[in-house]
Every structure is written in structure tokens, then in C-alpha cells.
Amino acid sequence: MSEIVDKLINQGFVTELGPGESTSSGGRRPTNLQLNVDFGYVVIYELGEDVVYRMMSRIDASVFSVTEYAEPDHDIQKRMQIMIAHAQDADAPKGVPLRGVAVAVHGIVDQNQVVFSPFLDFKKVDVATQLNTTLHVPVKIENEANLSAIYVRDFDNHQRSKDLICISIHQGIGAGIIIDGRLRTGNHGEAGEIGQSVVYDHSLSSRGQLRTIESICSETAILQIVRERTGWKNFDLERLVSWYRRPDSLITGILNDFCYYIANVIYNVTMTIGPERIALNSRLIQALPELLIKIQNNIPKHASSPIQIDLVSDVRQCTLLGGCSVILRELLNTGEEPLTFKHLLS
Length: 346
What we know:
Blueprint: H1 2-11, E1 14-19, E2 31-35, E3 41-47, E4 51-58, E5 62-70, H2 76-85, E6 98-105, E7 108-110, E8 113-116, H3 127-135, E9 139-143, H4 144-155, E10 164-169, E11 173-179, E12 182-183, E13 198-199, H5 202-205, E14 211-212, H6 214-217, H7 219-230, H8 237-245, H9 249-273, E15 277-281, H10 283-287, H11 290-298, E16 308-311, H12 318-332, E17 344-345
Helix pairs in contact: 4-12, 7-9, 9-11
Protein name: ROK family protein
Function: Transcriptional repressor of xylose-utilizing enzymes.
InterPro entries: ATPase_NBD, ROK, WH-like_DNA-bd_sf
């Protein structure tokens, strides 16, 4: 341990504060350390469907900038330009160097490479290598749901759960899986792609077609169902929430179905993996928290012991903060050893 600490001090990553208090049994007094926040900052991006989100953080995970850049063309080269241009722009602290970059992708990531994304054609673009070559810092690429799970483990884990799952419900449905405190991505990064689970429908299977769970109850699917039934092509999440609160019987029925299906997703995941906690990352449930109670009430009561089911504490930024943890761990060379970060806004 002393060798690791000495290395971090020599690198300028941590500074010594002086001797601490000895224990009641005596012995050598410990040396108090703290992270040197001026050692550098990190940048985390999330490649959304129509937008690029950016977070800047110092190495103690204190966030000092969160910005978004519209990019509706789904052009990976334009997004690369955005990420490169804004990694070291005027928002960066003067005299403090960039130390690392993390990128969240809605899709499958394997060995720091994007294998598949439902709405971005990466055209065999090696995002990590291009950013590393241009910015000269370590770069980590990871799936959005996995980063949400890392956020829950490292920022939002007051119960110290070692086995947990974070289910992200956005354009699709994905699960980040933490077992024994470590992220499990499976073969070729495909673990947790629960939205691709097939719903049995004889009328479709007889024609060689498949119906997936995310085509029924992802946020995108719910909005599409509402648009088809109301005839409103631009029906968005804000209007959905407003109509539900009227209340509107059509919207209430659609969201009751949503709660039923998500409850069954949770039940199936619980019976398969047996986590201590399932956290949900969903803008829809954040906007209508009463849906969480309906989901909980719809879960079949067959589990031998109850598990904690809740909403992540920061739906808006949990993916970015998960990326912050990943790149800071890379810089600290801690692997997935237990670390707890505080979400600080400077």
C-alpha cells in the first residue's frame, strides 16, 4: 500500500496533510492524504440520440460544468468534432490540465470499442483511439446502462449493496449488472441487453418476426404508442406527464400497461440474477414518481426475500457521473476496488 501511495504522491495526484491521530491501541500515527484537485480535470460525454452531453469534473469528482450540444444529424464525425473541440474549451479551469475522457454510448461496447448502436452508425470509427491520439489522454468507452450501474455503486449506494442492477429505460431498455461489487459485461459486452428479450407472440413468430420488450415499454415505444393513438406526431414527454395528471383515461391506460411490463422485467431479472437492489434510471418515472409504486405493486410476490427497488438519485446526470468514476479509477489505477465518491457541484 505504501508503494501505491508514494507513487500517487510522486505523480502529484495526492498531497500529504500531515500526521493523523493514532488508534487507542497505539502504534504508528497514520498520514492524512487528500486528492490534489489541481492535478487535473476529466471530461465525460454521453452520445444521446439528438444531443451530445458533456460534463467536466476535477479529479475529486467535483463537477464544475455540464453542457449539451445539439446534433440531430446522427453523424459520428460531427460528434467526434464536438468532443474534441469542447474537451479543452473556455469552460476548462485555467492552468489545470486535461487528464482523461470517458464516453457513454447507447449500445454495445466491447474492449473499449463500440460494437453496435441503435441510432448512430459508427462506420468502424475507433472513438477511443481518435480521442486519445488528438487529446493525448486515456479514453474509456462504456455502455450507458453500465455507467448508470457504476453510478449507483459508487455515488448512490448508502446500503453498500454488492449485488445490484440498474435498469435504464430510454430509447431502449438496458441493464447494468454489478455482482460482488464488480461490473459484469458478459461475452463481447452483451450482458444486460434485456430490452432485446423476446416477447412471445404467435401471430408474429409464425411469420418469422420477433417482438422485443423494449418495442413495448421503452420510453420511445410509449411515446410512439401515444402518438399513434392520439394522432399527435409531436407528442412529447412533457405533454404525456400533463395529460396523465388531468387525468386522461387513454394515457392512464397506456402507462398502467407500462408499469405492468416493467414490473415483469424487474421480476425476470430478479429471478435470474438475485440482486439486493434494483435501481431504475428513467425520465418518465422521475416525472411521475407515482408510477414507481404501481410498478412495485405489479411485481409478482414469489421472491423469497424482498429487494430494494427505487429510482436513481440523479436521473439527469447518473450516466455522466458513472463515466466520471470509470475514468478516475483508470487514472488512480484502482480497478474496481471499493471507492465512494461524493457528487459535488463546485
